[in-house]
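Lecture notes, continued. The same structure-token format from the folding unit now serves as the input rather than the output. Read the line below as a description of shape only.
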């Protein structure tokens, strides 16, 4: 995989949204993903419930171009590195959690670091375009996308089939376009898939626990999503 830095000097060019130089953003892009298959979680807190910790299943681990490895979770309207989360209630990352041994830790597991570094070295893809597909992982944590519908104040929930990593480091949750399905089951890489974040109807990602509550019309879940939609 080509991980070389841009030929022109980008150290003095700053991205307005992140406040980071373009060279920093280039070095922090993701170049390889590894699925989390042992149920490890991310812990976070927020100001409203300062005495509580909340958890989300880690979707996968990502290797940045600068060598850093971090856990990734679907978070609001994107997939985000766990240490970088920003909760609407001033939430913050509190670490990773292994429920099997009841242990909190703050660095990516060594076996995932080795897996990612080895895979990145082995699969040295030569990509010419930013939107060339580097990898596509199946969703293993039951992520759903919330989509707006033509009906006012109506939303639909669609299962995320996979997560697609592009050469520029972008990661997209892939949804099924039912009108283009030629065979089932729909698998990662299928031509009927399209990126959630690129759709005008896309609003948020939710893991399956919340998605199931929304489907069951749980009052608290519906109230929470109503606040998000109204504030969008």
């Amino acid at each position: 995989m080509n991980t070389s830095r841009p030929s022109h000097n980008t150290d003095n060019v700053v991205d307005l949204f992140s406040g980071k130089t373009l060279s920093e953003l280039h070095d922090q892009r993701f170049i390889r993903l590894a699925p989390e298959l042992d149920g490890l979680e991310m812990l976070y807190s927020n100001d409203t419930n300062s005495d509580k910790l909340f958890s989300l299943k880690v979707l996968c681990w990502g290797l940045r171009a600068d060598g850093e490895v971090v856990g990734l979770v679907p978070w609001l309207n994107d997939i985000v590195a766990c240490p970088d989360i920003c909760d609407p209630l001033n939430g913050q990352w509190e670490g990773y959690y292994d429920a099997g041994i009841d242990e909190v830790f703050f660095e990516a597991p060594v076996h995932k670091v080795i897996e990612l570094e080895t895979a990145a070295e082995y699969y040295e893809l030569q990509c010419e375009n930013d939107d060339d597909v580097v990898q596509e992982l199946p969703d293993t944590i039951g992520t759903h996308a919330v989509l707006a519908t033509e009906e006012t104040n109506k939303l639909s929930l669609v299962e995320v089939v996979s997560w697609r990593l592009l050469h520029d480091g972008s990661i997209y949750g892939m949804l099924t376009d039912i009108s283009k399905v030629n065979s089932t089951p729909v698998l990662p890489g299928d031509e009927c898939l399209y990126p959630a974040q690129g759709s005008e109807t896309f609003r948020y990602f939710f893991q399956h626990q919340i998605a199931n509550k929304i489907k069951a019309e749980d009052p608290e879940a519906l109230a929470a999503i109503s606040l998000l939609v109204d504030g969008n």
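Point for the exam: Confidence is low (pLDDT under 50) at residues 1-7.
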